[in-house]
Amino acid sequence: MHPGPPPPPGYWPRQSPPPSAQQLQGRTLAAQQEPYPYHRRPAHRPRLRWVATPPPGAWPRRRVVVPERYSGPPSYPVPPRWGFPNLVWRRPTSVPGTASDEVRPIDRVPVLSRSLIGILFAFAVLSVVAAGAEIWRYVLLIQGREAALNRAVVAFSDGFVLSAGLLASILALLPAGLSIWWLLVARQAASDASGDAPPRPVWQVLVGVLVPIANLPMALSIVGELEHAVLGRPRDVRPKPSRQVLVWWGAWLLNWVLLGVTIVWRFRDDVQSMADSVVLVAVTDLSAAFLAVVTALVVRRFSALLAPSDARAVRSMRVLKVAGAPEPELRTARPSGAAR
């Protein structure tokens, strides 16, 4: 017989452990002759299982993956077709087909306040310009007492006064209408927030704001009641207007009194009365500008108290509570491969 091939380098024959008593008993039984009949064999015959293990170095080694070097963001030869839709993110304020589909008064307050504040400041600037035109006319009247005036300068002054006064009078209707609308919406929003009905009906609010003589004392009560509701004070406590509301009411009284005096003074036809009416119109325009600025500040303060979570002011948002959502399914067991 020829010897077999030499073993590979690193090979070491596997040493089997010594046989156990059970194995020895099985070998003894196997060496004996089976009695007749041959199908009767021992009930507890040992079972042997041969396990083959690969020698060391038989498994292929794992390839070491070298990390690729970062070469910048990806670039494409053509614009990719995937991506986010070309839409503007907005707050999910309503769900179609549900009760939330209706716009609430508290949602209208920020929109109305932003529009109203911008229009009020624009009206204030225009009123100051109209007052400057009236002051220029009064200066020309003083100069005309001692010397002749240039016709072009007088014509330009008259056109300037007429244009500025007409624009200020027309533009005054827009902030007045928006202010009343904002007042009604803010009253309803404050009522919804507190859960109480408004202290007075809508027709009394309109009478207390629009009727010339009745609006002088009632305007303070209406705005004071709105401030009382916005601050969340109890209804059984008497409203106490703040200093800002009192300043607004003073500007309101001054503007209406000057407007009435100016209208009455214009019916006089002597020269001095006409010159005095120019001064009264200039002062009335300045008071209207001051009233517009104070009204804008009041509207901004009340709107901030009603809707403090403005989208422009809030940067980071957190979910504090989820209402109406089903309970999450709790996990009874943790999978073996799940990350902690």
UniProtKB/TrEMBL annotation:
The UniProt record lists the keyword Membrane: yes
Domain DUF4328: 145-303
Compositionally biased residues, Pro residues: 1-20
InterPro entries xrefs: DUF4328
Region of interest (Disordered), residue spans: 1-42
Keywords: Membrane, Transmembrane, Transmembrane helix
Keyword Membrane tagged: yes
Transmembrane segments: 116-139, 160-182, 202-224, 245-265, 277-299
Official protein name in the record: DUF4328 domain-containing protein
Organism: Amycolatopsis iheyensis
